[in-house]
Amino acid sequence: MIHLILFGPPGSGKGTQAKKLVKKYGLLQISTGDLFRYELGNNTPLGIKARSYMDKGELVPDEVTIDMLKNKVNSSPGYAGYIFDGFPRNILQAEALDNFLCEKDQEVTALIELTVTDDEIVQRILKRGETSGRADDLDEGIIRNRIEVYNKETAPVAAFYDKQAKSHKIEGIGTIDEIFEKLCGKIDQVIA
Ligand code: AMP
Q1: Whose CA is nearest to atom 1 of ligand 1?
Q2: What is the mean pLDDT of residues 87-114?
Q3: Domain for residue 180, yes or no?
Q4: In the list 68, 73, 120, 161, which could disulfide-bond 167, CB 3.0-4.6 Å?
Q5: pTM here?
Q6: Strand locations in 24-155, DSSP E?
């Protein structure tokens, strides 16, 4: 099976690209952000808990996030593999993912990072906020905090997979189709 981590800061285009990749490779996109927003929309206890963190641009605690991720994988058989979008967000989550896949005799195939500058991210997210309906996309302070959390807690995950020789980078600048072409080129290389 193919297990890709689509990696990069908020607003780097992970979600957009993941939606195109699932069609081409027969994978399931698992976005922890989308899963939280679904819970939030249904006012579940998990959604209510997650909201207080999401509204500040902080990470939701690991235990609930990891459990939610495992449940999603376990309840979604029949795919050629998964695209993890927005997970893992720190080293502990990366270790949990590795152990979880290992129990299934599986492993992460590759982490592919979309690189984008901080200023470009802020512009993109503010623009997305005009239509996304996401409270965390509307306030520049919250966006900057999400970038800070990314740099501090999430960026080390790329180095973690680099030690396993699984980390790759693609410049996340250009049209959606140009970036998609570059991504597919990289994926075809790693799964060959
Ligand atoms: P995203 O849609 O990936 O930008 O995520 C939106 C928000 O959901 C983040 O700012 C976090 O509050 C929360 N979130 C999403 N994924 C994770 C994760 N893997 N670990 C902790 N919090 C997460």
Answers
A1: 33
A2: 98
A3: yes
A4: 161
A5: 0.96
A6: 28-31, 81-85, 110-115
